[in-house]
Automatic annotation (TrEMBL):
Signal peptide: none annotated. The modification 4-aspartylphosphate is found at D58. Pfam families: Response_reg. This is DNA-binding LytR/AlgR family response regulator.
Length: 241
């Protein structure tokens, strides 16, 4: 993958554990903490507004468990960090990246984070295509054919992929996070709540908008909004930061 930092959110209902985990993560290179939560309901309410790559979750919490949250965030790599050893088997059954028991050491946390980094590295290095469920059936889609991706107006759970041959396809029931997990992060970046673009279509840009090489219905250059939440990642990708 590129040299950009991996962005993380943390959820633990116990504030001392949350603060300690934040301190440990701050000592690891290549990691940026986007936000910490001590209330699972707040995470559910806010996560769609955040840009992050993976999450670290406690298991036993009031109202919602870590497994409930993992189901909601199923498109993201997950590390469980908990005082309870008995849930490890269940965690790996849902394909968690790692399961750490408290008290957490820096070395153990580093091992878990390296597994997350490895997933992203393999994704970016090896894959040039992926299989998706679409409105036309299962499809094998090559990443270098995709120009940009937009939320469906019919169903927000679906995403419309637009290709260089001016065709498009609707991918069913997938989040932007799920798409970014498989798309090469050296080329694709989210720019607002509704869109992901390939850098290949960028012609001009400023802090608020991107003029693309594509044409709109009036045959004028298509202009897309660049929102503050996603501006930093866009700029880092352009500069290789």
């Amino acid at each position: 993958m590129s040299n950009r930092k991996l962005k993380c959110i943390i959820l633990d209902d116990e504030m001392p554990s949350l603060k300690f985990l934040k301190i440990l993560l701050g000592q690891l290179e290549g990691i940026e903490i986007v936000k910490v939560f001590n209330d699972p309901l707040m995470l559910v309410k806010e996560y769609r507004e955040l840009e992050f790559d993976f999450c670290i979750l406690d298991v036993e919490m009031p109202q919602l468990t870590g497994f409930d949250i993992a189901e909601i965030l199923r498109d993201y790599p997950i590390i469980f960090a908990t005082a309870y050893k008995q849930y490890a088997s269940e965690a790996f059954d849902i394909n968690a990246v790692d399961y750490i028991t408290k008290p957490i050491s820096l070395q153990r946390l580093k091992q878990a984070v390296e597994k997350v980094k490895s997933r992203f590295s393999k994704k970016g290095a090896d894959l040039t295509y992926a299989q998706f469920n679409t409105d036309k059936g299962k499809a094998l889609i090559h990443f270098d054919k995709i120009l940009f991706i937009r939320n469906s107006d019919v169903d927000s759970r679906d995403k419309i992929l637009f290709f260089e041959d001016e065709t498009d396809v609707t991918v069913k029931n997938i989040s932007f996070g799920g798409l970014l997990t498989v798309l090469p992060d050296s080329d694709f970046v989210r720019i607002n709540k509704r869109e992901i673009i390939s850098l290949r279509i960028v012609k001009f840009f400023n802090s608020e908008e991107i003029v693309t090489t594509l044409k709109d219905q009036l045959d004028k250059p298509m202009v897309l909004g660049l929102r503050e939440t996603y501006r930093k990642s866009f700029m880092e990708l352009l500069t290789g930061g």
